[in-house]
Amino acid sequence: MFPEVKKEPSALASRVMTLLMQAWRGRWPEVQWGIQLKRMLSANSKESCDVAEILMQQAVVGSSPNNLLLSYLKHTVLSQIVPCSSVLKYITEFDDLSRPHCILALVNLAEVFGTKLSFSYGPDSPLQLSRSLLAVLHWVLLLLLKCLQTNREDRPELVMVMDGASRAATAMLKRPTVTALLQVAQAYREFEQTELNLRGTLSQLPQNAFPDGTREHITSMLTLAADLPDVQLASEAVLETPHLPICPTMNSLVALEALLNPNSDVQPFVDQILMLARAMKMSRPKLFLEMFRACFMGLVDASTSSEQLKWATYTFLKMRQVMQKIQQLSGGPDFSSDVEQGIDMLQQYRHLLDRADIKQKWDCLNQFLKELVQAGILSESQISAPKQKRTAQREQLRPADLVTSPTSSAGLIARAETTVVSILKTLETDHLKNQDPLVGVLSQMLSGRSFEIITSAAASMGELKNFTLKLIRSNEFARQTTGEAGKAAQTRAQLFDITFLMLCHIIQLHGMDIVAGHKEASDSFILQWAQRWLPEDGKYRSLDTTANPPDQGKVDSLLHHFMSGGADLRPNMQRWHEVCLNTPFVVQEVLFAWEHKALTPDKVKAVLDNIKSRMGCLSVVTCVWLCSYMNVVGAKARKKPLAMLEHLTGVKVEQGTSTESRSHLMNMVMEQIMNDVLPADHPQRSSARVLVPINVLPIVTLKETLNETFQRGWLGLKSMHTLEQLLALCGSDWFCEKVVMQMLECNKVEELSQALSLVVAIFHMDLEHLTHSLLLTLMPRLLLSTIHTHVLTDPRGSTLAKLCVLCITGTQTSKIGQKEPYIRRSRKRSRIDAELEDMDESDARPGKVRKHHETQLTLNLEGFNLDDIVAKVKEDGETSPNFDTKDPMNKALINLFCLMNAIVHDPSMTPRTTFIVSFIEEALKCGGQYTRFILQFMPPKMLPQLMKTLPGVFSNAQILQICDLSMLSGRKVAAQAISSNSRFMDKPAAT
């Protein structure tokens, strides 16, 4: 029953009642009733009355409904004279099962409103209508539940009610707009409880309690109702590469990790590949295949380069750690079987495995399987079949190709793990008591490639920091003299020299951050010296040639020693760190004396010979000083220091001298120090490290490298290092623009897809900075330019949108739960970071814009600014979600969405508009936290404007993901967009 009306009817209500009685007596048609009612309401617009209540009260007065009045009510709602939500409200208040015919009439009326009503226009607010629809659907389920609970044979009319109710609910749930609006309403608790009760009651009733058709209708309706809260987007890939023979992104990411991040923790890398695998909808066996195949491709590619040890270390030591981490994060009962499938697919590439074995002179797959077993990824029984299959494949090779070498990188790395553990134990011993054995062990490490192998293995095992700290501890012990004489003093000098050279080499390869933040390391001499003098990433330290030494007497004494042949340089009296600090002042005096003709060239050479014959560390500090000096003086003044440098590096250490065993490592350290300061055509300059010619424009080198990479389909060793040098040389803004524009020059969809897959991986060289350059510099330039419109046209525009979204999600992934972003070593704080941190939003005002007849695209269009996003108080006391406004990524996205919002509100529609749609669609494909992170910066008025400009451009499921339904403002925008979408989404249902 309806609640009784306690208030006195208004004058307008009385006139409406009179008109209703007149229409009923005269049996007016619906149209005539509608016309007369509308005239009356227009003539009395200042008064108000609830027409819906009046019609409802009169239509169901007796035991049977008044069908004429119900037709009036239906016409009044469908012609939008009265709000539908008010009628639905009164319908849900009627619950008198003693009048089943009235109930059935109201159910049919609700079905008409739910399936025929136009949601695009009307007096109801879309959000209010969504709540009313959920309420009436809940009411229908309650009716069904009550009918089932009171079903008796003497009341067959209840079966009619159940049939009508299940039919009405089914019809409503099949309408896309209704189901979308029901999700916007977000009040499922009572609805789901009623649905659960209805299912339970239905299952408990005997099969013959009511007709089978009725049970079937209710069951099918409940199936639709169960899916109501789970209207999800179809799973689509942001980046699709199934048409390519290999996945360039995964292949190149493995290469970047193996060669540029040998000492990094595996966690950031695993996070990236898992994120990209989800974005690419790549199965786990396929992911494992791509990673394993990349390792073996690297073993082949680097077999003749100096980086073959890095690939071997990564393949046989680091990859098992990656697999263990993946197992921890996304394991499951099928993990081992997925790895087996990956291995099985890898064995289909027999020629790749054969080439790896021939190049490495080792059974690489067998060794790889052993490492997986050792890590607990596979069992012995699981690798038996792959081993047998590989053995049969190897039997078809020539005997000469089956030769295994004891010096193979694969074999050496396989044995290096136990060696590293043994060396770490040795370094733990008491230095005061065990100097001789320690020096012996360290000297053995300098033979051949031993030290390189051990450091590579330690890096992959995660023990390089520990190893470095122990070397620093040994170096600190050896730098002080305790007055010992003879062999003990010589041993201490050798310990200092060896550890100094080792630490210099480690810092050159892995950066000073290898021991950053550790107090013992930061207070050590070697790290303080390296921070002051040792070049990093080709950048030399500042040099003051007018500086005075701390103790001129020690410099004079040291100069005398080197001038006289160094015979009286007594090890038992020396503090070796002081010798290292004073030697550059000695070299400076020798150079200045030579320049003023106080010394002959032969005497200068003799001094350098004495320096190099003493200790390797003295040659290194001399080389560093000469390079820094050459870096700050003019071309004419470089002649003599260059000659000194040439002689220093050209002197061969005589066999049997104290530095003979350390000469190889010393030369490696000096070669890397002086490589960037030597002239391009200098014979001592390592051509292998200079991949960007100085006589060719960087853009030419970049285009040649990218064209070769895009055509090949994977990132080769030389290409990777060339791109790395170009990035370091020209900066992230230049690099980002040129790489992206080169990608967009591809003409075919397949070519664009392959280029995009490679560029995504290339950006991981410095993902955070390149993403900021993409969002803050390049994208605004492209969106505001009139000459680059073609790059925003599909398929280029959608490719560019994919790149933006993948870079954003990759950068965000690196920040979630990570101490450091996913970049190579410690790239310096960029100018962009400084500008973003120093910018004060409260002082940021738009500059003056020239007046034109057309609307200008500015960041202030529609009154939208940062304050609107950050702290604007919404309706009903609701506030926007908080986020860090100082974060560069947040600022970049805010800036980009401001610009896109301005473009959307511009009167003209261009490819820029379609790019914005593509950007949002690709963001939706990411799903979960990534979609929410990107779209949280979207202005509230942007979606409605897009729906006006491009009606039906987004589906209801997309709208539900775009809007934040946890906030009232988001639900309002979603309801409005879904309602305006109804004329497109409901067409299939209507037919």
Automatic annotation (TrEMBL):
| Nucleus listed as a keyword | yes
Q: Hey, which family's this protein in?
A: Belongs to the Mediator complex subunit 24 family.
Q: Spell out the Pfam families in the cross-references.
A: Med24_N (PF11277)
Keywords in UniProt for this one?
A: Activator, Nucleus, Transcription, Transcription regulation
UniProt main location, coarse: nucleus
| Annotated source species | Batillaria attramentaria
A GO cellular component annotation here is: nucleus
UniProt protein name: Mediator of RNA polymerase II transcription subunit 24
